[in-house]
Input
Amino acid sequence: MADSGPSAVEARRLSKDFDGHRALRGVDLRVLEGESLAIFGPNGSGKTTLIKILATLVRPTSGSVSVAGFSLPQDALDVRRRIGVVTHQNYLYDELTCYENLTFYGRMYRVQGLPDRIRAVIAQVGLEARLNDRVRTLSNGMQRRLAIARAVLHNPSVLLLDEPEVGLDEQAVNLLEDLLSRLNDGRRTVIMTTHNLERGLRMSDRVAVLVNGRIAYQETRAALDMARLRGIYAQLAGARV
Output
């Protein structure tokens, strides 16, 4: 993807401190509209903190950040209307059915034609047969797919995924990857953190490596192969991969 074009996400000198610990240290990041970015990094590198800031869940300590053309934290409400978020928490109500959960979130986002939209996203994630089942009866993989349906229900322009494969078995991960590939249609901007280098490279237009709260490396997928990425990651993160 070209380096020029409108930005969907832009951070400049972004830092975040927690009780004297600096989780992010002057992050500079620009993601274009329609681009897919995979962010790699060891535990504690700041990946989740970065996603939480972009998702309006955490305020930055310093620096500037904009999402979908709006500045944070002052325009947080406008940003929330334009993002979908999938984290380790599914943000689903166990005692409600899949349909009831999506109805709740759809009304909150004032989704037009909500019943039809619910059926469309449920079909996308392959849960039509479980639409009227309570969430607590679903497997972890099914709950993660429902969380993605929740995240895209209002057709957000930016999708934020924080290690969406965590806690899933290999079959569920493969289903999840297929689903995310279909959602990544070149119109929606996708930022995903993951520990899986191969999957992240396969699913992205560009990759970044976050180490000790800083972006240590960025490159397009076209300029990388798996062997080179593994070598660069091992060198930067000090990890065997």
